[in-house]
Design a protein that fits this description.
Radius of gyration: 24 Å
Low-confidence stretches: none
Strand content: 35-45%
Helix content: 10-25%
CATH superfamily of the largest domain: P-loop containing nucleotide triphosphate hydrolases
Bound molecules: adenosine-5'-triphosphate
CATH architecture of the largest domain: 3-Layer(aba) Sandwich
Distance between the termini: 31 Å
Structural class: alpha+beta
Length: about 375
C-alpha cells in the first residue's frame, strides 16, 4: 500500500527470497514501487538483480515471499503460485533482442498484438504508433538482418510496449550497444517511459545508468537490498560503505582512521572529532572525490601522495594517488598531469561527509 493515498503499490515485493540449492541468490527483499516509477536494480555481477527481475517476469518462482502487481498477487513462494508471464500485464526487454528473423520489423512488432487478439485495424494503427515513438518508421518493411544492433534493440522495445503493458521489465537492455548509442538510448528509454506511463523495473550493473534514469534505486549486495530510495537520497545519505562507494562518479574515498587524542587521525591529520566515531576505535571516513583537491589550499589539511593516474572529466581532472597504501581519488581544476610516482599534495576540504563502522554500517 501507498500510505499517502491508500492505493496499492504498482509492484509490491514482500520478503522475497530465491534459493538455488543451498545458495541464496535473493535474500529477503522487501520493497514497494509506486505507480509510474522507474526502479533501477543495480549492483555488481552476481548480486541477484536478474534473478529478482526474472521472478517479477514470472520466469522464476520465489522460494519464499510474495509479489503483487497493482494489489494482485502474481507470485507466492509459500503457495508455489506463479501467474504465467502472459497473465501479468508485464513486458520484458532482454539484453539480446531475439527478434524473429523471418518477420519484418512491422511483423515482429505486430506479433504480440495478434497473440493478444487485437483487431487488424488496431494492430496496424498501434504498429505505426510505436514505430513513430521509437523513431524507426523508415525501417518498417526491413528484416532484422538488414538493420543495426541499436535499431534491433529499438524494435525489441517497440515489440514489448506494443500491447501497452502496465509494467515494463528491462534486463540490461543497453549492454550490447556502444557507449555513445547507450547514452542516446538512455534518454530514449526515459522518453518512452514518460510516454507510456508504465511502471518500469530496469536491471543494470552500471551505476551511471542507474543514477541518470531512476526515480527509485535499489542497490543489491549479495542478494540483499542494501538501500532503496531516490537516487539523490542514496548519494547524499548512503547507509553502508557499499552504497557509498558503488554509487557516484568518480568513486568516493573511504579512509580508515583511528582515535588519537580526541580526534580521528589519518597519516598525522586530524580529520574529524573522535565523537563522530561513537564507541568505535577504528572507523572509515567518507570523502567524495570533489572533497579532496589536488594541491595545497590555505587553511586546509593536506598530505603528500604518490601520483598514479589522471583522467579528464568535463574540464576537470580526476586524479588517483596513493598514500600509505590508501588509494585516494581527488579532483583538480582544469587539466592536470604528472609522472607516475611523482609526489603531489592533496588537500581535504572540511569534515568527512559520513562515518562508517569497519563492518560497513553508517554510524554518523
Ligand atoms: N539457475 C541457477 N542455478 C544456480 N545458481 C544460479 C542460477 N541462476 C542464478 N544463479 C546464481 O545466483 C546469483 C545471482 O545471479 P543473477 O544472474 O541474479 O546475478 P546478477 O546480479 O544479475 O549478475 P550479472 O550482472 O552478472 O547478470 C549468481 O551467483 C548466480 O550464479
Amino acid at each position: 500500500m501507498n500510505p499517502a493515498n491508500g492505493n496499492p503499490a504498482a509492484i509490491a515485493i514482500r520478503n522475497v527470497s530465491k534459493r538455488f540449492g543451498s545458495f541464496t541468490a535473493v535474500d529477503n527483499v522487501d520493497i514497494s514501487v509506486p505507480q509510474g516509477a522507474f526502479l533501477v536494480l543495480v549492483g555488481p555481477s552476481g548480486c541477484g538483480k536478474s534473478t529478482l527481475l526474472r521472478m517479477l517476469a514470472g520466469l522464476e518462482t520465489p522460494s519464499e515471499g510474495e509479489m503483487a502487481f497493482m494489489g494482485r498477487t502474481v507470485s507466492d513462494g509459500t503457495r508455489g503460485l506463479v501467474a504465467d508471464a502472459g497473465g501479468r500485464d508485464a513486458g520484458l526487454v532482454f539484453q539480446s533482442y531475439a527478434l524473429w528473423p523471418h518477420m519484418t520489423v512491422a511483423g515482429n512488432i505486430e506479433w504480440p498484438l495478434r497473440v493478444a487478439k487485437w483487431s487488424k485495424a488496431d494492430r496496424a494503427a498501434r504498429v505505426d504508433e510505436v514505430l513513430g515513438l521509437l523513431g524507426i518508421s523508415a525501417l518498417k518493411e526491413r528484416y532484422p538482418a538488414e538493420i543495426s544492433g541499436g535499431q534491433q534493440q529499438r524494435v525489441a522495445i517497440a515489440r514489448t510496449i506494443g500491447p501497452k503493458p502496465s509494467i515494463l521489465l528491462f534486463d540490461e537492455p543497453l549492454s550490447n550497444l556502444d557507449a555513445k548509442l547507450r547514452i542516446e538510448m538512455r534518454s530514449e528509454l526515459m522518453r518512452i517511459h514518460r510516454a507510456t506511463g508504465a511502471t518500469s523495473v530496469y536491471v543494470t550493473h552500471d551505476q551511471v545508468e542507474a543514477m541518470t534514469m531512476a526515480s527509485h534505486v535499489a542497490v543489491l549486495n549479495n542478494g540483499k537490498v542494501d538501500q532503496f530510495g531516490a537516487p539523490l537520497e542514496l548519494l547524499e545519505n548512503p547507509r553502508t560503505t557499499f552504497v557509498a562507494t558503488f554509487l557516484g562518479t568518480p568513486p568516493a574515498n573511504l579512509i580508515s582512521v583511528t582515535k588519537q587524542d580526541g580526534g580521528l587521525v589519518y597519516d598525522g591529520l586530524r580529520l574529524a572529532d573522535a565523537q563522530r566515531a561513537k564507541a568505535h576505535d577504528g572507523v572509515q571516513l567518507l570523502y567524495r572525490a570533489h572533497d579532496i583537491k589536488v594541491g595545497d589550499i590555505e587553511g586546509q589539511l593536506a598530505i603528500t601522495a604518490r601520483f598514479e593516474e589522471a583522467a579528464p572529466i568535463a574540464g576537470r581532472t580526476m586524479v588517483t594517488a596513493f598514500s600509505n597504501g590508501q588509494r585516494l581519488t581527488a579532483m583538480a581544476d582544469g587539466y592536470f598531469s604528472a609522472a607516475i610516482g611523482d609526489q603531489i599534495r592533496l588537500s581535504f576540504l572540511g569534515e568527512p561527509s559520513a562515518v562508517f563502522a569497519m563492518t560497513g554500517e553508517r554510524i554518523d
